Amino acid sequence: MTLFNGLSAFSITPTDAAGRVDTAALARLLERIARAGASSIGLLGSTGGYAYLSRDERRRAVEAAMESVGGKIPVIVGVGALRTDEAEALARDAKAAGADGLLLAPMSYTPLTEEEVFRHMASVASAGGLPLCIYNNPGTTRFAFSDSLIAQLAKVDNIAAIKMPLPADRDFRDELARLRAMTPAGFSIGYSGDWGAADSLLSGGDAWYSVVAGLLPAEALSLTRAALAGDRTETERLDQGFQPLWSLFKEFGSFRVMYAIADLLGLCRATPPRPVLPLKAADILRVEAALQNLKGVAEAAHAADTSSHASA
């Protein structure tokens, strides 16, 4: 399964104050990701604010995405919803629009049991009829998938991957070995949590489900390629360039920081959906400094590469 491998770049979904998607701005962001050469686009994930959008607006976002980048790069669409029937409808909408895969988190208000989550996931996977990635995101859903539940779901038709949070002990190799021993061959295990991307890829993770790649795809792709090639020195050097951003992600949440980045780079003018508030001016200056740091690392790498080629 190649859909859930490599760098999956998760875009914000620009909207107006009423929650109506700016499809032109969204198309520009997605086309930028496609041009950079990412492995896939993650649309309407947590970074894409799926929980804040109506079904009609989510449908408009998917249709705009497929019109702009369909056939150029695989598109994975988040279809999480509180009710199973709503998630099934969103999955069918995504398939009808031409999406390549689905991403599903077990949203809830009432805490869910493992049986409830299993049935929810299996029902949506069947309704969508597309390869589906389980979204294990206890930070927002307050539900953590056990190893045994992952093993059960990995055997369900259409369920092909899982997007994992960073392990608390940062022991990626042990977790990957444990999960691969109980899931079918080809079942993809990737990670979100951008500040753990370098370690997860160097440890053998199949995919980096990346927030920052939604707006800085070329920079994220450089890190991904170095890690997948097993070049630890280059991976760690590139990861160092991202460290100020990772610190801001941890402090403010990547959702808020990404909107500030989009504005600073002149990619689109949008603010987070209320009640989420944009960063304060002083904090935006810190984001700007983090971007300058990343730019400086990239320029130094380019200069070193140019010098090396000239010497040769």
Q: At the third CATH level, what is the topology name? A: TIM Barrel
SSE pattern, N- to C-terminal: EHEHEHEHEHHEHEHEHHHH
Task: Give the domain tally.
Answer: 1
Global outline: globular
Structural class assignment: alpha/beta
How many helices in DSSP terms? 12
Strand runs, count: 8
Major sheet details: 8 strands, parallel
Task: Summarize model confidence as the mean pLDDT.
Answer: 95
Assembly level: single chain
CATH architecture: Alpha-Beta Barrel
CATH superfamily placement:
Aldolase class I
Radius of gyration: 19 Å
SSE layout and pairings?
Layout: E1 6-10, H1 23-36, E2 40-43, H2 55-69, E3 75-78, H3 84-97, E4 101-104, H4 114-128, E5 132-135, H5 138-141, H6 147-153, E6 159-164, H7 172-182, E7 188-191, H8 197-202, E8 207-210, H9 217-228, H10 232-252, H11 254-264, H12 281-311
Helix pairs in contact: 1-2, 2-3, 3-4, 9-10, 10-11, 10-12, 11-12
